Amino acid sequence: MITSDLIFDDFTNLLCAWVSADAAGADLAKVAEHAIADKMPLISVAPGALGTIWPWLEKEPVKIMARFYYTPPEMDISELARTINAAFKNGADGAQIFLSVKDLDGFVGDIKSIRDDLFFNRYLSVGIDIGEIAACDWERIFMSLREIRASSVIFALTRDAGDKSDFVGRIYGMLDAFDKKFTGDVHFVLGKNFERSNQTLRLIHKMQPGLANGARFFIG
User: What distance lies between CA 141 and its chain's CA centroid?
Assistant: First the structure.
C-alpha cells in the first residue's frame, strides 16, 4: 500500500494512483481498496476499466479520471468526444487527454465549441509530455489551457532517462514561466520515482506556493 509517510508529510492528500492499462479484475479491486485506505483524491484509469472499478468507488470521495490519448489524424475530435461521453456514463468524474505539443493548438480550436456541454460538472485535464516543451512554448501552452478553461494540466516524461533526465530542470522552467491567469491545478505523472516527487513539490513550495494545495502526483 502506498502511504504518504514513504516520502514526507507534505504529500498527504497529494498522491494519486496511476493504474496501468492492462490491469483488470482483482488488481483493479486492490487498487480501489488502496486508494480508499490512502485517501487518494484521484485515480487514473483506462476507459475499459471503468465498469469494474466504478462500483468500488461510487460512494467514496476518490474521483475517477479516465485516460485518453488524442492522436490526430488517426482520431478526430468527434470520436474523442464520443469516447469521453461514454466514459462519463460509466462513472468517470473527468478525462485526462494526453496529446503532443504540436497538436495542442488544433485540439483547442476543436474542443472549445463543445467544452461546456461535454464537460458540464466534469474535470478536463490536458496531459503533455514536458520533454517536448521548449522554453519559448510556455506562454502559448498556458494561453491554450486558459482558452479551454482546463481544470488541470498534467505533465509526464515519456522518454525518461532516469538520473540523466533533466526533468527537475524542466519543472523549474515551467514554474518560472507559470501564467498566474491560469486557474487550473498542476499534476504530474512520476511513476515510482519518489525522490523526483520530493524535488518537484519542494520547487513548487519555493517558486509557486499557491499551486501546492492543488498539486497531484500520479504514481504507479
Answer: 15
